[in-house]
TrEMBL record:
UniProt keyword annotation of Membrane present: yes
Domain EamA: 3-130, 145-284
InterPro entries linked: EamA_dom, EmrE-like
Signal peptide extent: none
Keyword terms of this UniProt record: Membrane, Transmembrane, Transmembrane helix
Transmembrane segments: 6-23, 30-55, 61-82, 89-108, 114-132, 144-162, 168-193, 214-234, 240-262
Pfam (any one): EamA
Protein name in the entry: DMT family transporter
């Protein structure tokens, strides 16, 4: 169950990242974040009301608040690092986010068997390679490296925090809803600042173009929500170390989606990374 849920998480996160990447070619990253999360919050709000999730209100929701504040900060740092480049360095380094939840699991007393330990090592190596690391070329700016590490820590912190934000299915819906509201507050504040500095909040073409992209934006937001939900369930039903590593295979999904939809050719190192990630997955699932 843990392996299946965590792999579903990586699939949805990978597709959400791919969709978000396509949308940021047409509008600002902040607009994508705020609009997609707002659409997801509307759906989650309806689900919370329908399931009576408000009854699960409690102090554990502070974990959801923290995840909702950290998430947009990590995402903005990641996008800024990608803009400074090179992406072949930024993307693999950001995938090191898995270290945070894995470290938390080990600190809480989890001790994976040797098969799973090997699987973790192989899978993480595969994820880093799947990003197509650039081992040659111009040196990377220190600011870019710092932003990338901030985003990696932030993404990992979200995984570690959201796991503790609920203890039931209805509580999970409420936690995800609270997380989205905080995402919107932080992202919306940053978007307001960006707009006041003269940057365009709407895509070229204005509201009609934004309206036409609403289905795609809704998919990105809902896929991200669903991924958070399946990750929480995976972490609650099995070892966090296993769930976190399998859920972190999403860069492989993004790379394969780009290959299938955009016809981008995978570099040799990416193909090798995808293969290693698959081997690591098998080891983790069988451990």
């Amino acid at each position: 169950m843990t392996a299946a849920l965590a792999l579903a998480t990586s699939l949805m996160w990978g597709l959400a990242d791919f969709g978000g990447g396509l949308l940021t070619r047409r509008m600002s990253a902040l607009t994508v974040v705020v609009v997609s999360q707002t659409l997801a919050a509307l759906v989650l709000g309806a689900v919370v009301v329908a399931t009576g999730g408000w009854s699960e209100w409690g102090p554990q929701l502070w974990f959801a608040v923290a995840a909702g504040v950290v998430g947009p900060v990590a995402m903005l740092a990641f996008y800024k690092a990608l803009a400074q480049g090179p992406m072949g360095v930024v993307s693999p380094l950001a995938s090191l986010a898995v270290v945070v939840p894995v470290g938390a699991g080990l600190a809480l007393g989890e001790r994976p068997g040797w098969t799973q330990a090997v699987g973790i090592l192989v899978a993480v190596t595969g994820v880093v390679l799947a990003g197509g690391p650039e081992l040659r070329g111009a040196p990377v700016q220190r600011q870019t490296l710092l932003l990338t590490l901030v985003s990696a820590f932030g993404f990992g912190a979200v995984m570690a925090l959201i796991e503790h934000a609920s203890t039931s299915i209805t509580g999970l819906f409420l936690a995800l809803f609270v997380q989205r509201l905080c995402n919107i507050a932080v992202g919306g504040g940053a978007l307001l600042v960006q707009t006041r500095r003269g940057a365009a909040a709407l895509p070229e073409g204005g509201v009609p173009v934004l309206r036409a992209q609403l289905p795609a934006l809704a998919f990105v937001g809902l896929a991200d929500v669903a991924a958070n939900g399946t990750y929480v369930l995976a972490a609650q039903h099995g070892p966090v170390t296993v769930a976190a590593v399998l859920a972190s295979l999403y860069p492989v999904v993004t790379a394969l989606a780009a290959r299938g939809v955009l016809k981008e050719r995978l570099r040799g190192v990416q193909t090798a990374g995808a293969g290693l990630a698959l081997v690591g997955t098998v080891l983790l699932a069988s451990g």
